[in-house]
Design a protein that fits this description.
This protein is mainly alpha-helical and 276 residues long. 64% of the residues lie in helices and 0% in strands. It has helices at 4-18, 22-27, 30-44, 50-74, 85-94, 97-102, 110-113, 117-128, 140-149, 160-174, 195-202, 215-227, 232-240, 243-253, 258-274. The protein is globular.
Length: 276
């Protein structure tokens, strides 16, 4: 049975959150608008369980939050870079287009779902064969690359749009930090911390979620995201909105020992003081 109610919810969210934002209406080419919501509706008709539907709706709303965060970064006066605002907006909107397909597996973990959502999204965009009107001055290759790299553990390239969406995605997720427990991996423990994850953070290295074994580890991983922010405006947002405090509170909740908590706090203080 087609979940008609679910498609109505998708349409309602899209109308209110997306079409209700004049920036979205102005910046996103009509063909991209139609494909984005059409993809959400397509998989909204396929998902079966309540959990799958919740995941799809979550990623729909998350896409808008990343769109918003991307524009905040673009519009910051301190970047020293002339952005193509349309291209930046499109990249941020479409970064998780592969998640709509992945939601049908009831998992947002690539190893668990057997779907690399970033690769899937990049290929979906490429297969669609968009030719964005010349007046937008967009490069479809840049958009595809940014989608592909947005969630990789690390990005060593220099493309500003790939860096933009990586920052905007992290900001969007931090702004919905309280939801992370809901989407924890089923195999994770709810107690304990891995030495490997803690060591990576204390050595200012990026953590790989494939090493995560507990919800506590997942919280520690978020610290490495702070160090991975590319733009000064992104780091200022993180400090202003007290992202480090969100991590501190959660680590205390999960019972990180006092000695480790003190070391982790030093890392967080270093980030805060260096981002002012």
């Amino acid at each position: 049975m087609v979940p008609v109610m679910e498609t109505k919810i998708i349409e309602r969210i899209y109308t209110k959150l997306f079409l209700g934002d004049p920036r979205f209406v102005e910046l996103i080419p009509d063909a991209i608008k139609g494909w984005f919501v059409g993809t959400a509706l397509k998989y909204g008709r396929v998902v079966q369980s309540r959990e799958e539907r919740a995941k799809l709706l979550h990623k729909l709303i998350h896409s808008k939050k990343v769109f918003d965060a991307g524009l905040e970064i673009i519009e910051s006066p301190s970047q020293g870079f002339v952005w193509n605002k349309v291209q930046g907006a499109v990249v941020c909107l479409l970064h998780d287009i592969g998640r709509f397909y992945q939601a049908t597996t009831n998992s947002f973990f690539d190893d668990e779902s057997k779907i690399d959502h970033a690769s899937a999204g990049a290929e979906m965009f490429s297969a669609k064969g968009f030719t964005i009107p010349p007046n937008y001055e967009c490069d479809e290759r840049v958009i595809k690359q940014a989608i592909y790299y947005h969630s990789r553990c690390e990005y060593s390239g220099s493309d500003p749009y790939a860096k933009l969406v990586r920052d905007a995605d992290k900001i969007g997720i931090f702004r919905e930090f309280g939801l992370q427990e809901r989407f924890a991996k089923r195999s994770w423990s709810w107690v304990g911390f891995s030495k490997e994850i803690l060591d990576d953070v204390l050595n200012r290295k990026m953590c790989d979620y494939r090493q995560v074994k507990s919800v506590g580890d997942f919280t520690v991983l978020f610290i490495s995201w702070l160090w991975d922010l590319n733009f000064s405006s992104s780091r200022l947002i993180a400090v202003k909105e007290k992202f480090p405090d969100l991590v501190r509170q959660r680590l205390t909740k999960y019972g990180l020992d006092e000695a480790s908590l003190k070391k982790v706090n030093q890392v967080l203080l270093e980030f805060e003081n260096g981002s002012q």
